[in-house]
Write a structure and sequence with these properties.
Blueprint lengths: L16 H11 L2 H14 L3 E3 L10 H4 L1 H6 L16 H9 L1 H7 L17 H12 L4 H12 L11 H8 L7 H11 L12 H10 L8 H10 L1 H6 L2 H8 L3 H12 L21 E6 L2 E6 L7 E3 L1 H9 L2 H38 L1 H6 L9 H8 L3 H8 L3 E4 L2 E4 L7 E3 L5 E3 H13 L9 H10 L6 H10 L5 H13 L3
Helix pairs in contact: 1-17, 7-8, 8-9, 8-10, 9-20, 11-12, 12-15, 16-17, 17-19, 17-20, 19-20, 22-23
Length: 487
């Protein structure tokens, strides 16, 4: 056998344990963080939670500065936790909470009860199927990310670009890879889950029906191009467009109406819970400032008893305690990093969306993850993790941080306006339309263009549907039923 020497170059992404822990902590919501820290306290004797008797500051001096430095297992991979004492922020916050809270507009805060999206039967049902499917590691990570991006009705709320960003830096995937996994996921139980629109959901459900199903081919044609006619109840026009017989059309429509346009609805058996905000926003000296909720500061510190024991321990015990000390240092440093990141990202969001704080949705600015990542000096994936399932209490209500991100629509002067602002304007126009004479999507598009917003009719229709508002024909029929109802 001939011997040879070969040189191969390869690239691998290696994440240090401390970085992995910091990434994990950042994406946890408040409840999951509390459970994670409780497990850490139970498994690590060098960690303890400060008592609520005023002795709450996890000061390093109490544990012994010498022990902290002497038993550090190398300083090359981690740095000393930086000073981050959010207790002062909390005290300043509580000091002026009374009158300034009312001045900021919180006395008019509407009572909004939101559901906690951290749990739900649909998610567990899909994750169980993913664990049994023949996914490789990358595809399984993509499928899991898609499941966590579903709304309560089973629709995919995030774009493919946002899902790709949330997987970084562990996985670098393309939108084509996500699309392939999404196609498989949509055919799991319930069929049509993770669709991006009711039309796509119906098309997926029709695609899995047996080929000999009566009316299937005509139903698929309708689902591809003519669902608007079905929604509007324009059956005669639909028959003309398709050139189908009345009995054939009736069979296809019955097939479509028998499908489930909300695939996740039957799994939505969660009890309503009040969400506790992670971030508070208020106006201070003419500026909008953010502060972390005290729940984000678990008041962990090193256990003084075990730090003293570390001095007198034998070699075997000392090795064990050294390892637990290193873990404790990593956790405390990661918690500080998490708090800094949350505070920085939320403050950058508030700086951009100051108009929303003062004037509401109509003043919302277009914003994407990249904008915040550049100003905060972090990666887009970090912003995605920091804004997922984290909530901000504003004078306008309680909102998930992702709510403040939206796409944009062009204006006649070359600028942009956020999709949320356009939806608010549409809502105002429809609310002020003449009774019995609802505005069509084309008329709404023209009115928006008169204000400088370039929104096509299809864009108006998409935003109107997102607001849960029916077409002009549906609104006209609803008005007739209301006026003709017996009094």
């Amino acid at each position: 056998m001939d011997q040879s020497l070969q040189l191969r170059l390869s690239q691998k992404l290696a994440l240090a344990p401390q970085l992995q822990q910091a990434i994990r902590l950042l994406q946890l919501n408040r409840i999951e963080l509390r459970e994670y820290l409780q497990e850490a306290i139970e498994s690590n004797p060098l960690l303890e939670q400060a008592e609520l008797d005023g002795d709450t500051a996890p000061e390093r001096e109490e544990a012994g500065t010498d022990e902290w430095d002497e038993h550090a297992l190398g300083d090359s991979q981690e740095s000393e936790p930086q000073d981050f004492d959010s207790q002062d922020a909390y005290e300043d916050w509580d000091e002026g909470l009374g009158s300034s809270w009312e001045e900021a507009g919180y006395q008019t805060l509407p009572e909004r009860q939101l559901e906690d999206a951290s749990s739900g039967g649909l998610r567990e049902h899909l994750l169980f199927q993913i664990s049994l499917a023949s996914f490789n590691d990358t595809d399984a990570a993509i499928a899991t990310a898609v499941v966590y991006a579903l709304d309560e009705e089973g629709y995919l709320a995030d774009s493919l670009a946002e899902i790709a960003a949330s997987l970084l830096p562990e996985y670098q995937v393309s939108e084509a890879q996500i699309e392939a996994v999404l196609s498989r996921l949509q055919r799991m139980e319930p069929v049509g889950v993770a669709s991006r629109s009711p039309a796509e959901c119906i098309r997926v459900q029709l695609s899995v029906l047996p080929g000999n199903t009566a009316g299937l081919e005509l139903a698929r044609r309708i689902a591809r191009s003519y669902l608007d006619f079905v929604v509007a109840g324009e059956q005669e026009r639909l028959q003309r467009e398709l050139g189908a017989k009345p009995e054939e059309l009736a069979l296809a429509l019955d097939l479509i109406r028998g499908l489930e346009p909300r695939p996740g609805a039957r799994y939505d058996n969660r009890a309503d819970e009040y969400l506790v905000p992670d971030i508070y926003v208020r106006q201070q000296e003419g500026k909008w400032v953010t502060a972390l909720s005290p729940d984000n500061d678990p008041q962990l510190r090193l256990n003084r008893y075990y730090m003293q024991l570390l001095r007198q321990s034998s070699a075997a015990d000392k090795k064990y305690l050294d390892g637990r000390l290193q873990e404790a240092r990593w956790l405390l440093s990661s918690l500080e990093l998490r708090n800094r990141t949350l505070l920085t990202v939320s403050q950058r969001i508030v700086d951009v969306q100051r108009g929303f704080m003062e004037h509401g949705e109509i003043a919302m600015q277009p914003l994407i993850l990249k904008d915040i990542a550049e100003t905060a000096g972090v990666h887009e994936s970090t912003v995605s993790r920091a804004t997922t399932r984290k909530y901000m209490l504003t004078p306008r209500g309680l909102f998930e941080l992702k709510y403040f991100f939206s796409s944009h629509v062009g204006t006649s002067d070359g600028g942009t306006v956020s999709a949320t602002s356009v939806k608010a304007r549409l809502n105002t126009l429809i609310a002020a339309e003449p009774p019995g004479k609802p505005l069509s999507d084309l008329e709404l598009s023209r009115l928006l263009q008169e204000t400088g917003i370039k929104a096509a009719r299809r864009t108006v229709a998409k935003y109107r549907e997102a607001l849960g508002i029916g077409s002009s024909a549906e609104r006209r029929r609803a008005w007739r039923r209301l006026t003709q109802a017996p009094r």
